[in-house]
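User: Structure please.
Assistant: Input sequence and predicted structure:
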Amino acid sequence: MQDHSNPTDSHPHNSNHETRIMLVDDHDLTREALTEHITAHSGWSVVTEAASGEEAIESVKQQAPDVVAMDMHMPGLNGIETTAELVKISPSIKILIISNYVDTSLVKAAFRAGASGYISKQAAFEELVPGIESVAAGKQYVCRNIQLQLG
């Protein structure tokens, strides 16, 4: 687990604070690519990373991110199980699932567990910015290729 924050920084929850993002994926390369893409966006910062659902749960308790961008399939707790635990710990947290899986039953299960958005990894970079913007604003987001499947 990597911590990108300065522990002395405070983050007031107001309309002009930086959006604090946590990345959860068991692949280092995926987290690195997402970090580069996210930190290029003004007003966003990656405050911590986790390689598993269990790490994510501990990290949310310590870092209080605004948005969690999380893979669906990980060793240990999967994205749906982790989402359910994270919303128990922090009911206001916004979770964006980023997954190879585009099965509509998984998408629906993720939303039932408390996810705010779902993006397929095939569309991740082109839909990452609107996905994070939407969920950070309290809206739901589903990438286009999954919207077509959901009808």
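The chain has six helices and seven strands.
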